[in-house]
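FW: tagging you since you asked about this chain on Friday. Here's the raw sequence from the shared folder, copied in full. Didn't touch anything.
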Amino acid sequence: MSVSLNVSSEVVALAERLKAHHWRLATAESCTGGLIAAHCTALSGSSDWFERGFVTYSNEAKTEMLGVDAALIAAHGAVSEPVARAMAEGALARSRADIAVAVTGIAGPTGGSAEKPVGTVWLAWALRRGIVHTELLHLPGDRAAVREATVAHALAGVRLRATPL
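HL: got it, structure written out here
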């Protein structure tokens, strides 16, 4: 099986923005399983601005690798605003990055519920200066479409928020 990622114009624009500000990015991924990091590192020279990625698909990985409190996951579910926020903050705390993006969601086709249907994705962006932004998406399409739309939204969000004071 051969996997080929095209370097998108969004990744190029993101790289330019981060390099201009001397910023580095960390990712914390659940439903995308490392696709955000893969898109970033498909660009030659990404080591100048991509610091590290955490793939935390299981709840245990979220707790062990990012420091997400297991009680938070139990109270709100892995696909929730508090968990996405804690993932982004954990990635920032466990890296040398200036900005982190976290995603947790239900890509399908299984795993959805009435409260959290397939396509439900929470994103969080944490900045070293203490600001955290979160956003809820309800994405249409199959598993691949949900994951790719999540990657695109996460990267666009990093570029939007990567602005020093």
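FW: The chain has one domain: 9-161.
HL: agreed, and The CA atoms of residues 29 and 55 lie 5 Å apart.
FW: great, closing this out.
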